[in-house]
Amino acid sequence: QIVDRVIADVRANPDQDQQNLADMDGIRVTGDEGWWLIRASNTGAQLVARAEGRNEASRDMLKQRIRQRLAGAGLEWQG
After folding, report:
1. Which terminus of the chain, N or C, has less C-beta within 10 A?
2. DSSP 8-state secondary structure symbol assigned to residue 79
3. How many domains does the chain have?
């Protein structure tokens, strides 16, 4: 499963500013700039990705981290 591969990758190679990792029902990583998460959708065969940053630049950086983590798990995200 893709989410499991992302979790394994984050555990092996944490984000530089990572403060907390929660892996119940997906993965949520909290750091200095905000947080991001990836989880399976409850309603279909899709992934849900979200990011919240301290400001727009932080949010964009967190979205880039999501892209990188998904690429490492073999999936390309265009969001």
Report:
1. N
2. -
3. 1
Secondary structure of 7-75 in the HEC alphabet? Answer: HHHHHHCCCCCEEEEECCCCEEEEECCEEEEEEECCCCCCEEEEEEECCHHHHHHHHHHHHHHHHHCCC
**Pair of tokens at residue 3:** 């989410």
CATH number for the domain harbouring residue 56? 3.30.310.50
Residue recorded with tokens 């990572």: 18
Write out the chain's pLDDT in tens, 79 residues: 889 999 999 999 898 889 999 999 999 999 999 999 999 999 988 999 999 999 999 999 999 999 999 998 888 877 6
**Looking at the chain, how many residues does it have?**
79
